[in-house]
Design a protein that fits this description.
Helix 11 links the parallel strand 5 and strand 6. The model has no long low-confidence stretch (mean pLDDT 96). Helix 1 crosses helix 4. The protein is of the alpha/beta class. The chain is elongated and about 65 Å long. It folds into two domains: 82 residues, Orthogonal Bundle (DNA polymerase, domain 1); 245 residues, Alpha-Beta Barrel (TIM Barrel), CATH 3.20.20. Strands 1-2-3-4-5-6-7 form a seven-stranded parallel sheet.
């Protein structure tokens, strides 16, 4: 099999598990190193030792390359495929089959680990009909948030990708825009107007008092550019970043505002977030809210995290038609363009 494809597929399965970032990056880096080599040149370098001496090619990645050059499925990849044949989540299988897209993903333009094209390839491999590219906004410097100028450049890239893709898939112009302390959105209204999807999330001052946080979120939800309220409590319940408690806010008021302004509440599928918690999903359901099951993927393999979100939505009795990521693209775009 193609050696670069084998390395990238290994990275995909490791991201899905999820494995430590350094481990994934070793395979992605090796794939990038050999991607431009003709098969004969790659085989010559593997045979004469030059590949082994190449910076970024380690013992395991070299083994994978050699086995692929021999025409075999590398043993390491075969093992990952066997593990990957088991679902990430047992519940929500019917609902998962109804999901058409994903409105929250990141690329290496902000704090994701992979180029946009690789994210698109993985989304199509998983059967998605659309994927929103929602890199961070400028105030989130720790995540390499996009300035207005960089976002404009990215919009041109998205247009070129869509022009090259089959009509069955669409990369949506999006952003995960930071909700500032006063509830305004961290990007110019003119640029937000040009996007297909705006996910608004709070990333700072998450321990503000309940009144302050409630006012902040209400202002963001009322902004006509906001389509989805992202990971609303900001909690972390596991993972390498440690844990973080939920933000305190008046959930009944915030979800009532989401229902009034037709803003979807995100069911964030990342295993370390599981945000909102079940009791808040129930509150949002009772308030009449729409929902968006999103992966918040920062790498191609993480796009499969939608399994976790579907399981939680099904367990909480969320009707499929109130989940906007089950909607056909035309309906979704019409809803988002309506100004909520």
């Amino acid at each position: 099999m193609d050696a670069a494809a084998a390395l990238n597929e290994i990275a995909f399965w490791l991201e899905r598990e999820p494995a430590p970032t350094f481990k994934v990056q070793a395979f992605r880096k090796a794939a990038g190193i050999i991607a431009g080599l003709e098969p004969a040149e790659l085989e010559a370098r593997a045979r004469d030792g030059r590949l082994k001496r190449t910076k970024g090619i380690g013992d395991r990645t070299l083994e994978v390359i050699r086995e692929a050059l021999d025409g075999d499925v590398p043993g390491y990849l075969a093992g990952l495929r066997r593990r990957g044949s088991h679902p990430l989540a047992e519940g929500g299988r019917e609902l998962l089959g109804l999901l058409r897209g994903d409105l929250h993903s990141h690329s290496d333009w902000s704090d994701g680990g992979s180029p946009i094209e690789l994210m698109v390839d993985a989304a199509q491999l998983l059967g998605r009909e659309y994927l929103a590219l929602t890199d961070h906004s400028p105030r989130l410097t720790i995540a390499n948030g996009l300035s207005a100028e960089r976002l404009e450049q990215q919009l041109d890239v998205v247009a070129r990708i869509n022009a090259r893709r089959d009509g069955g898939f669409r990369l949506l112009r999006g952003i995960e825009v930071d909700i500032l302390e006063d509830g305004t959105l961290d990007q110019t209204p003119e640029l937000l107007e040009r996007l297909d999807v705006v996910v608004a999330s709070a990333h700072s001052k998450l321990r503000s008092d309940k009144r302050t946080m409630t006012r902040r979120m209400l202002n963001a939800v009322a902004d006509p550019h906001t389509d989805v309220l992202g990971h609303c409590t900001g909690r972390l319940i596991q993972g390498s970043r440690g844990t973080r408690p939920e933000s305190e806010f008046d959930a009944e008021l915030v979800f009532a505002a989401c229902a009034e302004h037709d803003v979807a509440v995100e069911i964030n599928s990342r295993p370390e977030r599981q945000d909102p918690p079940d009791r808040l999903i129930q509150l949002a359901l009772d308030a009449g809210c729409l929902f968006s099951i999103d992966s918040d993927a920062h790498a191609p393999g993480q796009l499969d995290f939608l399994q976790y979100g579907a399981e939680r939505a099904a367990a909480n009795g969320v009707p499929a038609d109130r989940i906007i990521t089950t909607w056909p693209l035309e309906r979704l775009l019409a809803w988002a363009a309506s100004g909520n």
